[in-house]
Amino acid sequence: MKKIIILFLFVAFGSLNAMAEPISNHAQRTLIVYFSQPEEVKLEGVDGVSGASILQKNNQILGSTQYLAQVIQRHTGGELFRIETVIAYPTQHEPLLRYAEQELRDNRHPELKAKIDNLADYDRIFIGYSIWWYKMPMPVYSFLQQHDLSGKILIPFTSHGGSRFSDSLREIKRLQPDAQLITQGLAISREDVADESTVTRVSDWLNQLANVQQ
């Protein structure tokens, strides 16, 4: 299982920005968008088992980014939107690795199953993903290219294998130049996502965001 982490590597992470208003005051205007691709790996059947891109928590099998999205949703009261592709990704690790590599080389942005038609209903959008080959997964590129997020507050989060956000914050800013990107994102190692402390870390992070000024 650990080899999965080694193969999805990342680099550094940028500086911090700000946010003016408490998130909790705008729960009805909050959207949590995420892309998560759980892999078919054997877990031990014990609650709290964590893997590179999958975890078992409360008897549920979840992608690690998916789990973080759910925790954020519980704290903010926002709505969840899962980015899904028309053509499903391989669920076995090695085929997925090769597929993602070729997709990146081809600069191929996959077709998504659904778009968000009611973006006007939201002020701030959390956006979550892992990093594949030093980049955001291509479905996240598709999402950012197919939606106009001008004027929205974008708040990134990731379950990472060692390099946090890599270059993804710069890419989000490039693709959505008229959105306000909060670079004080949440980055939690995939190995730690299933820890009991994760819920507290998410809560603390949200509170810090609420206290930061633009």
UniProtKB/TrEMBL annotation:
UniProt entry tagged with the keyword Signal: yes
Domain Flavodoxin-like as annotated: residue spans: 63-186
Matches recorded under InterPro entries: Flavodoxin/NO_synth, Flavoprotein-like_sf
Signal peptide positions (record): 1-20
Pfam families, per database record: Flavodoxin_4
Keywords associated with the record: Flavoprotein, FMN, Signal
Any one GO MF annotation of this record: FMN binding
Keyword Flavoprotein: yes
Highest taxon in the source lineage: Bacteria
Protein name, entry field: Flavodoxin
Source organism of this protein record: Limnobaculum zhutongyuii
